[in-house]
Write a structure and sequence with these properties.
Layout: H1 3-22, H2 28-46, H3 54-73, E1 75-78, E2 83-86, H4 89-107, H5 112-122, H6 126-140, H7 146-163, H8 168-181, H9 189-198, H10 205-239, H11 251-263, H12 274-290, H13 295-310, H14 314-348, H15 350-359, H16 370-384, H17 387-393, H18 395-404, H19 409-418, H20 431-439, H21 443-468
Antiparallel strand pairs: 1-2
Helix pairs in contact: 1-2, 1-15, 1-17, 2-3, 2-14, 3-14, 4-9, 4-13, 4-14, 5-6, 5-11, 6-7, 6-8, 6-10, 7-8, 7-11, 7-20, 8-10, 8-20, 8-21, 9-10, 9-14, 9-17, 9-19, 10-19, 10-21, 12-13, 15-18, 16-19
């Protein structure tokens, strides 16, 4: 097929893929596999030499599809450059073991002591409560799962907010803003998708993208605590709190909340192993951030050790894996399925044809600014599109164009992540509905408040990326 025909095929593939996800006709897993396979079959069939027998043609099509999927999921080999490029399997393994690992840590009560300490420290002061809630949400959000963060933080603080008559919309923001920032963690869904898409372009992205995003994370978290401080001061004034003279909640109320935390999943708690679990978790994070070991290897080994030490009985180990494996299955199979889309786009030549075509549309004067422009496009893109649609449908098309103009896959990875600043304003984020239900607010109230506090985060992200050179303006 000609380059023009391949480009057209690629555009149609992406449009159909995004459309079926947006209209919820199929799940991301199904769309990522079946849509590219259909187009791959067409390209493979058209490419068969005239005169080829029917059965030989079928074998050729099946062989091509199989090769492309293998290259997208496992690895591809460039014999001329003597280079092996990994597929999406590494990211899938990271998500799998990281989610299970943090589920074990939550079940054993590693975070309980922190929750209880924070609740006892606040002593009815609205400012201390907002700051403590923000800190608690930041700690729990490290597991990369929004639903888990909402359930744990509201379980610890909802009664406190209600008894003190504090604004529920503030509780929602104190949970969701830190969660949106810490979605940058390697086992979080967005970064996993970006790494999965860009690693075949540049293998350095797999281990190098997260470290250069750390300044953005730090800047965003500083803003989250500034937000918590502002909210706390406002609530002090509204509720008439006077330090040392007037509390808003009694000590007995605080004690009852602490008891609720202590009694939750009591049979799984391992208080005597708190320091062991904490030290192991800190060590894993250090090795991951320092780039001294592959992420999925660290969490795989960590999960095995955590199971053996915390639950030495075989039946308990099986129960923990069975109960928490479901949380990991969803994001893992989606990233694996993304390997099919990536493999077909690259193997058929559609990706390259699209890049060449779109590159011809970019004015020469704007070529060097593509990463920055893409970060701006990502803002509305990640509000109106799901992570899957944007990262698997749009990023693979734009990244090669940026590279043609002197950009890098790493810069495009940074740009793609910055749009996460507003992503949780999207009605497509499932756990948001759990959050607004728990906090008893409407989606409209939530969205308006979230956008107000989230815009500065994008500005901070861009500034930090520009200062560090992660994404030149």
């Amino acid at each position: 097929m000609s380059a023009t025909a391949l480009a057209i095929m690629g555009f149609v593939l992406i449009i159909i893929f995004v459309a079926v996800l947006m209209t919820k006709k199929v799940s991301p897993f199904v769309g990522l596999i079946l849509v590219p396979i259909i187009f791959g079959i067409i390209v493979a069939a058209v490419s068969i030499a005239p005169g080829t027998g029917f059965f030989a043609a079928i074998e050729g099509v099946i062989g091509s599809i199989s090769t492309w999927i293998r290259e997208g999921l496992l690895y591809s080999l460039d014999k001329e450059a003597v280079k092996v490029t990994g597929g999406t399997i590494g990211t899938s393994l990271l998500l799998l073991f990281a989610i299970i690992y943090f589920s074990i840590m939550l079940a054993t009560g590693m975070f309980d002591a922190m929750c209880i300490k924070l609740i006892r420290l606040v002593k009815g002061d609205p400012l201390k409560i907002t700051l403590a809630t923000c800190l608690l949400a930041s700690i729990v959000a490290l597991d990369g799962d929004g639903t888990t963060t909402v359930l744990i933080v509201t379980a610890a603080t909802l009664t406190l907010f209600q008894k003190m008559n504090m604004k529920m919309i503030y509780l929602a923001m104190l949970i969701v803003i830190p969660n949106s920032i810490l979605n940058f963690m390697p086992w979080g869904g967005p970064l996993g998708r970006v790494i999965g898409v860009l690693t075949p372009v540049d293998s350095a992205v797999e281990s190098g993208l997260f470290p250069i995003l750390i300044p953005c994370i730090i800047g965003g978290m500083v803003w989250a605590f500034v937000m918590a401080y502002i909210m706390g001061i406002k609530e002090r004034k509204r509720l008439g709190f006077v330090k040392g003279q007037r509390d808003v909640i009694s000590q007995s109320d605080i004690d009852s909340i602490v008891e609720e935390i202590k009694n939750r999943d009591k049979d799984l708690k391992r208080p005597k192993l708190f320091w062991f679990n904490l030290i192991m978790s800190v060590l894993i994070m250090y090795l991951l951030i320092a780039g001294l070991a592959t992420g999925w290897v660290l969490f795989m080994i960590g999960t095995a050790i955590a199971l053996l030490v915390n639950f030495p009985k075989l039946k308990d180990q099986a129960k923990i894996i069975r109960e928490n494996g479901g949380d990991a299955l969803g994001p893992v199979v989606v990233v694996m399925a993304a390997g099919v889309l990536m493999g077909v786009l690259n193997g058929t030549g559609m990706s390259n044809a699209i890049a060449v075509t779109m590159a011809s549309w970019v004015p020469e004067s704007l070529g060097s600014h593509i990463p920055f422009l893409f970060s701006i496009i990502a803002l509305p893109g990640l509000v109106f599109l799901s992570n899957d649609a944007f990262y698997f449908g749009i990023l693979p098309v734009i990244a090669p164009i940026a590279i043609q103009y002197g950009g890098t896959a790493m810069q495009m990875g940074v740009a793609a992540m910055l749009g996460q600043a507003l992503h949780f304003a999207s009605p497509l984020v499932a756990f948001i509905y759990i959050l607004i239900d728990r906090c008893d607010i409407s989606f409209g109230e939530y969205q308006k408040e979230f956008v107000k506090w989230a815009w500065p985060i994008f500005i901070i992200y861009v500034a930090m990326a520009a200062v560090t050179g992660a994404m030149p303006l």
